[in-house]
From TrEMBL:
Cofactor binding note of this UniProt entry: Binds 1 zinc ion.
Name of this protein: Transcriptional repressor NrdR
Keywords: ATP-binding, DNA-binding, Metal-binding, Nucleotide-binding, Repressor, Transcription, Transcription regulation, Zinc, Zinc-finger
Function: Negatively regulates transcription of bacterial ribonucleotide reductase nrd genes and operons by binding to NrdR-boxes.
Zinc finger (unnamed): 3-34
Single Gene Ontology MF annotation: ATP binding
GO biological process: negative regulation of DNA-templated transcription
Length: 164
């Protein structure tokens, strides 16, 4: 790390702290030549690989936008959407890879959205999984009902009722 004051090519880390949201590290550094201190922020970059093969930086705002459309007209608050987007980002980051497929981002959205609102979940799943017919919707609804009934009875969720 070059010193921003004297351009010396080295510096010493004096203190390191995680930021409030835990997505970056704040480091206090000191230059061994001029003895001045400065702060750096380090964040791990997360890249999404789209179906076309192009890449773009992960955007929590883009996740929010897609989920917001699915939740339009539903009793879901902006705070709940923000928490969902944070859960999605955390799930993706815990995978430990710098690049993630766009498909994996969609999969990460499905489970927390199902917990938040079943109708919004069906809307999102219908676009994300390209439902072609009423039978696709019926199968998804049947699966949701089976999971809800199993949960109400205190039974384990059937294996066929895994996320869409």
């Amino acid at each position: 790390m070059h010193c921003p004051f004297c351009r010396h090519p080295d510096s010493r880390v004096v203190d390191s702290r995680a930021t409030d949201d835990g997505t970056a590290i704040r480091r206090r550094r000191q230059c061994p030549q001029c003895q001045r201190r400065f702060t750096t922020m380090e964040a791990a970059s997360l890249t999404v690989v789209k179906r076309s093969g192009t890449t773009e930086p992960f955007s929590r705002e883009k996740v929010l936008s897609g989920v917001r459309k699915a939740c339009q007209g539903r009793p879901v608050t902006e705070d709940q959407l923000a928490v969902l987007a944070q859960q999605v980002e955390e799930a993706i980051r815990t995978a430990g890879t710098a690049e993630v497929e766009a498909h994996d981002v969609g999969v990460a959205v499905l489970a927390p959205l199902r917990e938040l609102d079943e109708v919004a979940y069906l809307r999102f799943a219908s676009v994300y999984q390209a439902f072609d017919s009423l039978e696709d919707f019926q199968a998804a609804i049947t699966q949701l009902r089976a999971e809800r009934d199993a949960a109400a009875a205190g039974e384990p969720v059937p294996a066929a009722a895994a996320p869409l």
